[in-house]
Design goal:
Structural class: alpha/beta
Bound molecules: adenosine-5'-diphosphate
CATH topology: Rossmann fold
Order of helices and strands: HEHEHEEEEHEHEHEEHEHHH
Distance between the termini: 52 Å
Shape: globular
Radius of gyration: 19 Å
CATH class: Alpha Beta
């Protein structure tokens, strides 16, 4: 078992310089030292901000509970954005149960180093980083307290050569603990959060908690996805309501946040996840993939808003 010990990521040649050459903006918060900041803190903040500044939009995928399909949704959002022609990164900060490597067929790969830091893995054009890549064995259990988790997430953001991206999708562990808190605190101006739930009432309380968490931290809630909503017949594709449906929709309405879409239970989602192929790529023509593309349509609509503001 991995006991509490700070994570040391392999460093690229330029990873520790702290130089910020992302833009020439002298007004940039990374251009000058804040009062009370030590040399090291200043260098780290510059490195973090210069990385993040090259990523136009960062979204975190949250859920109140585990097992509701949060990683599945995060992987498919990333794949759908990539299919829509965007430069996409996917960061898995689920330190205790990183499932993104499996879902993208990247188990057991070795990461390389570049002049600008640790190189993310490539999943058919999506830049991917996960703690799972750094664990010596997939069965390894990570036992870390809050500050150590925060340090690891900071390194994921700061020391990985993400390059220029249109979207970074961050898969966070369930709940409102250290990892989502670190992500929301470390990324200034985070674009927002997508919250995944299942339709049942028991999930409702947890979704409300996730929404309240975002509101407290000033993170915009981009919307709620209701996953495992009805069953999609593998033969005819018809969706039947085997359990209750509409819980996520009701919560979104009640808490006045957008509803992004309902994804049915579909055995092909399990199969594609286990085989390491994003469903939205492997079954692009299916009605469920169309639902997933509908979810990212709401995200893409944000581009129009922010790009108009930039002009
Ligand atoms: P979480 O990240 O919330 O823990 P995962 O995305 O890892 O959940 O999903 C848990 C399991 O449920 C995985 O085996 C996944 O393939 C499966 N799953 C997720 N969404 C669906 C769905 N809509 N239909 C069928 N299986 C699903």
């Amino acid at each position: 078992m991995k006991q509490e010990k700070p994570m040391t990521m392999p460093q690229g040649e330029g990873a520790s310089t702290g130089a910020c050459d992302a833009c020439g903006n002298k007004e940039c918060s990374a251009a000058s030292r804040r009062g009370g900041e030590t040399d090291r803190e200043f260098a780290e903040r510059r490195r973090l901000e210069s990385r993040l500044c090259r990523i136009r939009r960062k979204i975190v995928v949250l859920s109140g509970k585990g097992g509701v399909g949060k990683s599945t949704v995060a992987v498919n959002i990333a794949a759908a954005l990539h299919a829509a022609g965007r430069r996409v990164g996917l960061l898995d900060v689920d330190i205790h149960g990183p499932s993104v490597p499996t879902m993208l067929g990247l188990e057991g790969i070795t990461l390389g180093n570049g002049p600008d830091g640790l190189l993310p893995a490539d999943a058919g054009g999506i830049a991917v980083m996960s703690l799972g890549f750094l664990l010596p064995h997939p069965d390894e259990a990570v036992i870390w307290r809050g500050p150590l988790k925060m340090g690891a997430i900071k390194q994921f953001l700061m020391d990985v050569a993400w390059g220029d991206l249109d979207w970074l999708v961050i898969d966070s562990p369930p709940g409102t603990g250290d990892e989502p808190l670190s992500v929301c605190q470390l990324i200034p101006g985070i674009t927002g959060a997508v919250i995944v739930t299942t339709p049942q009432k028991v999930a409702a309380v947890d979704v409300r908690k996730s929404i309240t968490f975002c509101r407290r931290l000033g993170v915009p809630v981009l919307g709620v996805v209701e996953n495992m909503s009805g069953f999609a017949c593998p033969k005819c594709g018809e969706v039947s309501a085997i359990f209750s449906r509409g819980g996520g929709h009701g919560i979104a309405e009640g808490m006045k946040v957008p509803f992004l879409g309902a994804i049915p239970i579909d055995p092909a989602i399990v199969a594609s996840g286990d085989e390491g192929r994003p469903y939205v790529r492997a079954f692009a023509a299916s009605p469920t993939a169309a639902v997933m593309r509908g979810i990212i349509a709401s995200l893409l609509a944000l581009e129009a808003g922010t790009d108009a503001k930039r002009k």
